[in-house]
Amino acid sequence: MEKTVTLDDIVNLCLRRGFFYPSGKIYGGFRGFYDYGPLGAEMRRDLINDWWNYFVETRGDIYGIYGAVITHPKTWEASGHVESFIDYIVRCTRCGEEYRADHLLEDAGIKVVDLTPEELSRLIRENNIRCPKCGGELGDPQPFNLMFSTHVGPKHTKSSIAYLRPETAQLIFTNFKNVVFTMGATLPFGIAQYGKAFRNEISPRNFLFRLREFEQMEIEYFVNPKKMDECPYFSSIEDFELYILTAEEQEEGVDEARPARVGELVETGVIGNKWHAYWIAESLKWLERLGLRKEHLRVREHVKTELAHYAAQTFDVEYLFPFMGWKEIEGISNRTDYDLRRHMEYSGEELHIVDDGEKVVPYVIEPSFGVERILMALLTEGYTKHKKRITLKISPRVAPYKLAVFPLVNKEGIDVKAREIYHALKNRYRAYYDDRGSIGKRYAKADEIGVPICLTVDGQTLQDGTVTLRLRDTREQVRVGVDEAERRIEELLSSWPWRRGY
Ligand SMILES: [Zn+2]
Fold first, then answer.
1. How close is the Cα of 115 to the center of ligand 1, in Å?
2. Is the separation of the CB atoms in 225 and 360 below 8 Å?
3. Distance 140 CA to ligand 1 centre (A)
4. How far is the CA of 166 from the centre of ligand 1 (A)?
5. Cα 200 to ligand 1 centroid, rounded to whole Å
6. How confident is the prediction for the chain on average, in pLDDT?
7. Domain limits of the chain?
8. 157 — pLDDT class (breaks 50, 70, 90)
9. What is the rounded CA–CA span in Å between residue 320 and residue 377?
């Protein structure tokens, strides 16, 4: 069945049910900023915890850190952000409105990837692109640095300028030595971090997709450059299947990904080394575990012109949004030793590690996930509408509530029993109790906010001690004893997806 979910559907659900609110709405809104509502805040927490659990807690070779948001300005000189983290803006010569040059071209159906200001200028003239607001003529593209800056301390001088981090990654590089020394880390190992990042986007757009304040979950995995093909976990993902679109294929005009085995992609040289391949597969395994379908995920290699200055090879994991096509939700780069070497150069500190008796500056593979983008993919994947009735079929791992408890009616002691069961279960599952309106309306609301299981207490409960468990995705109802309800709920939640009907 073709999904017809639109961006409006997702936005409306999020606003109506308290997943997200436009920030500063009482003051007329604040473009590029969203606040998490109660349901979104729960989902975010679960998503980050699940990521931490999968990539940090249960592995043993990855250390978690949590760095500062306002960061030493030298960090960003070393990383190259002060110099080259820029977009080009054009200003309307008549009304003064400013636009991102490449977005204006994209909106006119012209595909652009990392063009020089001269090329942007030429394309704007050739295609006679004018101010979308007033039709006025546009000026020449000017560079605009996307980092937010602030002043630290009372003196507002040039030397007091600091930056809000535009990515969490650099805090990992600047703490590399600390982790090696304090934790006794040896190669290969990783450092993980989640947290806010800030980019002064010229034109925030597509709801949660291009925000000025957003959250990242990043890993830098350090490997001896001589051992990029010595990955002890490789056999566990060798046969993993994914959809790939290589740089070469894109240069030949292909835009459809093809299925491939990870092992084959390494053998044929599509993915540069086994560690890079391993991290691509691990990332996809986690995204699929969250409920994103394999067919809705593809791995697209960056073509030369879009490759960042620090990367030897980058692959984006893209999700197929029915309303805006394939969009990046994760990037996996081979950043080589670029960052550590730059920080050595700018700080004068030695950032080596000893491996096999030799001092080495490790290479790094970086899986970098966008929290809001993944949340948007999960909401899109789960959103189903049937005869105006919305069901959010999201994984119990990230569902804002795992359980809802209802009394069929508010009398004859049924409500008393239902509250008793609710209080017994709510310490184990994030649950809510609802006795308002009809039972049908309560089920409808629970479906809409993605509650996987509803537990209903009725007259029969008082007689034989059984309750009804209703499954969101199939509307199936099972009758179980109160004393075994917890075990059954646990079984059901851990065996999701129950049935894939969409
Ligand atoms: Zn104008």
1. 23
2. yes
3. 14
4. 30
5. 21
6. 94
7. 7-82+147-382, 86-145, 401-494
8. confident
9. 8
Q: Write down the residue that tokens 């003239």 correspond to.
A: 125
pLDDT, one tens digit per residue, over 137-149 is 999 999 999 999 9
Per residue in 321-371, pLDDT (tens digit) is: 999 999 999 999 999 999 999 999 999 999 999 999 999 999 999 999 999
CA triple 68-69-71, angle to 5 deg: 75
Whole-number Å distance, alpha carbon 89 to ligand 1 midpoint, is: 13
Q: Residue 229 is encoded by which pair of tokens?
A: 């093909």
Please give the CATH architecture assigned to the domain spanning 86-145.
Answer: 2-Layer Sandwich (3.30)
Cα 34 to middle of ligand 1, angstroms: 27
User: Within 10 A of 256 (CB to CB), how many other CB atoms are there?
Assistant: 8
pLDDT at 501: 41
Which tokens go with 329? 């939700």
CA–centroid distance, 106 to ligand 1, in Å, is: 18
CATH code of 7-82+147-382, in short, is 3.30.930.10
What amino acid occupies position 45?
Answer: R
Distance from the CA of 369 to the center of ligand 1, in angstroms?
36
Tracing tokens 């109160």 back to the chain, one arrives at: 482
**What pLDDT sits at residue 499?**
63
Is-contact 106 47, C-beta < 8 A? no
Question: Cα(130) to centroid of ligand 1, in Å?
Answer: 8
Q: State the distance from the centre of ligand 1 to the C-alpha of 206, rounded, in angstroms.
A: 22
The predicted model gives 383-401 an average pLDDT of: 94
Distance (Å) from CA 131 to ligand 1 centroid: 5
Distance CA 142, CA 100 (A): 10
Distances (CA, A) of 191 to 48, 57, 383: 15, 12, 34
Q: What is the CATH number of domain 401-494?
A: 3.40.50.800
Residue 204 Cα to ligand 1 midpoint, Å, equals 19
pTM above 0.85, yes or no: yes
pLDDT digits (tens, 9 = 90+) for 258-309: 999 999 999 999 999 999 999 999 999 999 999 999 999 999 999 988 888 8
